[in-house]
Design brief:
The protein has one domain: NAD(P)-binding Rossmann-like Domain (Rossmann fold, 3-Layer(aba) Sandwich), CATH 3.40.50. It is 37% helix and 19% strand. The protein is built from nine helices and eleven strands. It has a seven-stranded parallel β-sheet with strand order 3-2-1-4-5-6-9, sandwiched between helices. It has a two-stranded parallel sheet with strand order 7-11. Helix 1 links the parallel strand 1 and strand 2. Helix 1 crosses helix 6 and helix 7 runs parallel beside helix 9. It comes from Streptomyces ardesiacus.
């Protein structure tokens, strides 16, 4: 079996990807800013990255941050992977990075381009938003007396465990370029999961749909971030909430 390095291996996606690869008998190294023995900040690179890549056949790059630096991290990883003779670089990305002019999406598109031009064998999987990210957004919005949502916008959240299953497949196979997008099972208005999240967490808030302006809002309103033709996910948002918060009236058990 091959040796695989998972960057961001302690994160929401990296952890289940690591579990699946190990279950298939691969030697898996986990790289992150906080886990030993491969404690590396990809934005800085350095000798720790070189050590982590020694003898590695495939890299699954799940490292990302909303604080910036993904392009620099990708550049450092690609350069070190070339020096180490890595054969395959597998990356996770986001549906709509080429259609929605959001800063983080533009960064993800730039990373995709770096990967495609790296000279390495590569595979990129784009998915819609994970259930847990949707919950974090709605919980933040619920700090106000009313939950303000962009009118006429929709979402298609997907279960991260299913994404891990899908991402582990190309990591164990030959480079495939950009593979088909992966979306959650349902395209629905923002209001629907927002109300489900409020119920599950036992919060009472008014939900107000607010018309917005600008290119980014228009792209979201037009569904640039959705993959209705690739709604291959099975787990629904309500099923995720039931597991996370428990069943019953008032939602949260603890």
């Amino acid at each position: 079996m091959t040796t695989i390095l998972v960057t961001g291996g302690t994160g929401t996606l990296g952890r289940p990807v690591t579990e699946r690869l190990r279950a298939h008998g691969h030697e898996v190294r986990v790289l992150s800013r906080h886990s030993r023995p491969y404690t590396v900040d990809l934005r800085e690179g350095g000798s720790g990255l070189e050590s982590a890549l020694a003898g590695v056949h495939t890299v699954v790059n799940g490292a990302t941050t909303q604080r910036g630096g993904d392009e620099r991290s990708a550049a450092n990883l690609i350069a070190a992977a070339r020096r180490a003779g890595v054969s395959h670089l597998v990356c996770i990305s986001i549906v709509g990075v080429d259609r929605v002019p959001l800063g983080h999406y533009r960064t993800k598109l730039a990373v995709e381009q770096q990967v495609a031009e790296s000279g390495l064998g590569w595979t990129v999987l784009r998915t819609t938003q994970f259930h847990d990210l949707v919950v974090r957004v709605f919980r933040a919005l619920a700090r106000l007396p009313a939950v303000l949502l962009p009118a006429h916008a929709r979402d298609q959240p997907v279960e991260v465990a299913e994404v891990a299953d899908r991402l582990a497949e190309p990591a164990r196979a030959a480079p495939a370029g950009r593979v088909p997008d992966m979306g959650g099972p349902e395209v629905r208005t923002f209001e629907s999961p927002a109300r489900a999240c409020l119920h599950a967490t036992g919060r009472r808030r008014a939900v107000v749909n607010v018309p917005l302006a600008g290119k980014t809002y228009r792209a979201f309103r037009e569904g640039g971030h959705l993959a209705p033709g690739h709604a291959v996910g099975k787990g629904t948002f309500e099923e995720y909430l039931a597991v996370r918060y428990g069943h019953g009236e008032g939602g949260r058990r603890g």
